[in-house]
Amino acid sequence: MATTVYSLEQVAAHNTKNDLWVTIHNKVYDISKFVQEHPGGEEVLLDEAGKDATEAFEDIGHSDEAREILESYLVGELDEKDRRTDYNYNAIRAGDLPQEKSSGSVLKVLIPALAVAGALIYKFVLAPQKH
Questions:
Q1: pTM to 2 decimal places
Q2: How far apart (Å, rounded) are the C-alpha atoms in residues 131 and 64?
Q3: 13: domain CATH number?
């Protein structure tokens, strides 16, 4: 079965709540029937209506299940002349957390420890000697 090819102009014509198409990774999706079900609300989808929604889709961190649901709305591919490869997003899958980098700085521990030690020395050693 041949894949239907759409231009960006054709996709752009489908930009209403009842007729909503988007492109994601150069594939064309008719998500009109999904607007009411979208967990993030319909406004998010309406903002991307008729456009390339790849960056918005990837930045939010959709789950594998969401990606499977999306595939059920596939209607074709974007015409070769309208395809993009210059996306700017941080792909995070739902459930994945960004790794926190440890700085390894000893000062983060040493300075508070010295402050506590100084307070204890003052309270129990220096202060009693003054009386």
A1: 0.66
A2: 70
A3: 3.10.120.10
